[in-house]
Amino acid sequence: MIKPAIQGVLNVLKACARAKSVKRVVLTSSAAAVSINTLNGTGSVIDESNWTDVEFLSTAKPPTW
């Protein structure tokens, strides 16, 4: 799941680098990328090291997935 996302972003950035008219790129993400994780307790600081627990999702099957 992560490798295809990274490759997709790299493809877009490389295309933008080749295009002379692109002045900037804004990359946005979803809070869902880090929000469903059983390891994140209340009051936890969430940063780039916190990813959604995919194994938890496959067993819990929340309605949004």
UniProtKB/TrEMBL annotation:
Organism: Saraca asoca
Domain of life, per lineage: Eukaryota
Gene3D superfamilies in the record: NAD(P)-binding Rossmann-like Domain (3.40.50.720)
InterPro entries: NAD(P)-bd_dom_sf, NAD(P)_dehydrat-like
The family this protein is said to belong to: Belongs to the NAD(P)-dependent epimerase/dehydratase family. Dihydroflavonol-4-reductase subfamily.
UniProt keyword Isomerase present: no
Keyword NADP found: yes
Cross-referenced SUPFAM superfamilies: NAD(P)-binding Rossmann-fold domains
One example GO MF annotation: anthocyanidin reductase activity
GO biological process: flavonoid biosynthetic process
Signal peptide interval: none
Protein name per its UniProtKB record: Anthocyanidin reductase
Keyword annotations from UniProtKB, A to Z: Flavonoid biosynthesis, NADP, Oxidoreductase
